[in-house]
Amino acid sequence: MVTIYITRDGDILDEICWRFYGDSRNLIDVFNVNPGLSELGNYYEAGIEIKLPVITEGPTIYTPSLW
Q: Contact at 8 Å (CB) between 50 and 32?
């Protein structure tokens, strides 16, 4: 189950995650269920639907790899 958040003008994902999850470490998880969200920039206009998944385990940690 997911929660749908409707953005207000000037919202940023870090702050949305902080309010919903209590921290902003789940950004990758939110991007994974919202294809194209990262292409909208840092500040969102009003009216964008963002799916906030229920996360029962620790946040997905991005580990860069050179190959």
A: no
- Say what the pTM is: 0.78
| Contact of 7 with 40, CB cutoff 8 Å | no
Q: Which residues of the chain have pLDDT under 70?
A: 57-67
Residue 24 burial (10 A CB sphere; 0-12, 13-18, 19+): middle
Cα gap 60→55, rounded to integer Å: 10
Domain ranges in the chain? 2-53
Closest Cα partner for 23 from 32, 33, 13, 35? 13
Question: Rounded to whole angstroms, how far apart are CA atoms 7 and 12?
Answer: 9
